[in-house]
Specification:
alpha+beta; 18 strands; 5-stranded antiparallel beta sheet; 34% strand; OB fold (Dihydrolipoamide Acetyltransferase, E2P)
C-alpha cells in the first residue's frame, strides 16, 4: 500500500533504487518508495536486509548503482552529502570527545566559516530546544547516553535539514532509556515538522514511532503501511514471522497466520468450538510471566509435523486456569482471526 496520496507531497522518493557490490546479490534491489512530507518513516528488517544501505544512499554516504533519489522533486542522486538537504544521526552519536556540547553542535557552522558569536548563539538555541542548554559546556564523556543523543540531534538540526536520517539511534541505550528517548524523538519530529527516516531492527520501536513502516528483506521491500496495517495484515509469511506475535500454521489446506493473543487454548481433547476453523494438539514447552500477560510456548502437531507456536494469555485468565510445562492442550482459532500466509 502506498502511504502517499496525490494530496500528500513526497519528501523523499526512491525510483528503481539499486545498490550492487562486486560480489553476490544486490544489497538493495530495484526498490520504489515514496515517503510523505512531515511523516515519521521507519525502515525495518533483519540484519543484511538493505535498510542501512538505503539510508546511506539517501544521505549520500553510499553511491547508487542505478535508480534515482528525489528530495521534494529535486534529483539528489549524485549530489555530495552536504548539498542534499539531509542530516544524519548515527548509532554511535559520533560526537567529538574533546569538544564541549556547544562546540560539537556548532562544528558544522565553524567549517562553513560562520563567526564564533553567531554559531554559538545558534548552537545554544538548539541545545535549549532539546533541554540541554544548561549542560552546553560539558564534554561528551561527562554526559549520559540520553544527553549525548540530544546533543547529536541538535548538531544534526543546526544544518537546517529538510529530512533527518537516523541510523539505529537508540540501539546503544539501555532498555529504560530507549523507551524514554523514542518518545522524545516522536515529540521532536512533530514539533519540528520535519520528515524523519529511521532505520531499526526493532519491531517494537518501529511500531511505537512510525507513521509509515517499510519492511525490508533481502534487498527488497516486502510491505509498506501503517504499524496497524503491517501488524494486523502482514502481506507475506516472512512479515508474519518477523513482526512477531503471529503463528504461521500449515492446516493441510494451506498456511495461515494467527496472532498469539487470538489463539484459543483448552485442556487436551475438548470439543472444538463450533466457531473455530479447526484445531490441533500441542504440548506446553515454556511458560513466561510477563506481568500483564503470560506467554506460553508450545510444540503443536500440524499437517507438516511439529511446529513452534505461542499463545498469549491475560494474567487473570492464566490465574483462573494455570498451564504447566509438559501439559497436553488443544489449540484452535476463530475463522475471522486467520489470515492467509
Amino acid at each position: 500500500m502506498d502511504p502517499v496520496t496525490p494530496l500528500t507531497p513526497a519528501a523523499v522518493e526512491l525510483v528503481a533504487l539499486t545498490k550492487r557490490y562486486a560480489q553476490g546479490a544486490p544489497a538493495v534491489d530495484n526498490i520504489n518508495l515514496r515517503i510523505a512530507s512531515g511523516s515519521y518513516c521507519c525502515l525495518l528488517g533483519p540484519s543484511g536486509c538493505g535498510k542501512s544501505t538505503t539510508l546511506r544512499m539517501i544521505a549520500g554516504h553510499e553511491t547508487v548503482t542505478s535508480g534515482d533519489i528525489l528530495l521534494e522533486n529535486r534529483n539528489i542522486t549524485t549530489l555530495p552529502a552536504a548539498a542534499r538537504g539531509t542530516a544524519m544521526m548515527f548509532q554511535s552519536f559520533a560526537l567529538f570527545p574533546h569538544l564541549s556540547a556547544l562546540d560539537n553542535v556548532a562544528f558544522s557552522l565553524k567549517m562553513k566559516g560562520v563567526d564564533k558569536t553567531t554559531r554559538h548563539k545558534q548552537a545554544q538555541d538548539l541545545l535549549e530546544r532539546v533541554a540541554m542548554g544548561h549542560l552546553a559546556q560539558r564534554k561528551p564523556g561527562e554526559l549520559s547516553g540520553g544527553q549525548q543523543q540530544r546533543v547529536a540531534l541538535a548538531r544534526a538540526l543546526i544544518t537546517q535539514p529538510r529530512v533527518l536520517l537516523l541510523d539505529e539511534p537508540l540501539s546503544a541505550l539501555d532498555p529504560f532509556l530507549r523507551i524514554q528517548m523514542r518518545a522524545e524523538l516522536r515529540r521532536w519530529q512533530k514539533e519540528l515538522g520535519l520528515t524523519f527516516i529511521h532505520v531499526t531492527h526493532s519491531q517494537e520501536e518501529a511500531m511505537a514511532l512510525a507513521d509509515t513502516m517499510v519492511v525490508m528483506n533481502q534487498g527488497l521491500i516486502e510491505q509498506v503501511g501503517s504499524p496497524h496495517e503491517v501488524y494486523n495484515t502482514p502481506a507475506t509469511e516472512f512479515i508474519a514471522r518477523f513482526m512477531g506475535g503471529h503463528n504461521v500454521i500449515n492446516t493441510g489446506a494451506g498456511k495461515i497466520a494467527v496472532r498469539n493473543d487470538h489463539m484459543l487454548i483448552a485442556p487436551a481433547e475438548p470439543t472444538a468450538p463450533a466457531t473455530g476453523i479447526g484445531g490441533m494438539g500441542a504440548t506446553i514447552t515454556d511458560v513466561e510471566y510477563q506481568g500483564t500477560y503470560v506467554l506460553l510456548g508450545l510444540d503443536a502437531s500440524t499437517a507438516t509435523g511439529p511446529t513452534g507456536v505461542s499463545v498469549m494469555l491475560p494474567e487473570a485468565k492464566f490465574a483462573e486456569r494455570p498451564y504447566a510445562l509438559g501439559e497436553s492442550v488443544h489449540l484452535s482459532w476463530h475463522a475471522a482471526h486467520a489470515l492467509r500466509a
